[in-house]
Amino acid sequence: MSGFSTARQKMVDGQVRTNDVTDRRVLDAMLTVPREAFVPAGRQALAYLDLDLDVSEGPAKRFLIKPALTGKLLQAAEIGEGDNVLVVGCATGYLAALAAKLARQVTATECDSALAAKARDAVTAQGLSNVACKAAACTDGDPAAAPYDVIVLNGAAEVMPEALLGQLKEGGRLVGVSAESRPPRALIVTRTHGEFGHRALFEAAAPVLPGLERAAAFVF
């Protein structure tokens, strides 16, 4: 086994399984998708650590969220083999690649166009033909490929992303971290008969996605 293969196994056994991720499909995806392939060369040694990994190229900070949280969100999303999935704020595409192992089709958006291009290259290098990586604001989603069975946020939102919810199909669900309240929590929002039901899942923290920040309060 290579060093990265060993590190990947340790990540799954030591970080993901120990955080109550038991879904065999999610665990298999995390064992087979090389996280280091989605990390800048100079930071690959950090690829399997228990941290939100900075993969930024420009001034705006962009991250791969912690492995354990990645696994827990994917498990909560219950992605089926026939599902059409949107990954928002995909950064370099790691979460999108994992989702592609679980779903029929994945659309991944990233507001940093240079990172979106890197994500495109990375998923192509993994031989994943069912992922489309696009440059788009996190608030916009991708209406062209909607409606979605599942939307996954690769990060947190301080405001409810209404435009994204509108792209869910009936029975569809959005999972991500809600930082609207303290402490922040992973949240699942389900669309039923045109209404949206919100359910908190577990306490979780993640970097806030660009465009989903709370508006700054006016201070005298």
UniProtKB/TrEMBL annotation:
<dbReference type="InterPro" id="IPR000682">
    <property type="entry name" value="PCMT"/>
</dbReference>
<comment type="similarity">
    <text>Belongs to the methyltransferase superfamily. L-isoaspartyl/D-aspartyl protein methyltransferase family.</text>
</comment>
<dbReference type="Pfam" id="PF01135">
    <property type="entry name" value="PCMT"/>
</dbReference>
<dbReference type="InterPro" id="IPR029063">
    <property type="entry name" value="SAM-dependent_MTases_sf"/>
</dbReference>
<protein>
    <recommendedName>
        <fullName>Protein-L-isoaspartate O-methyltransferase</fullName>
    </recommendedName>
</protein>
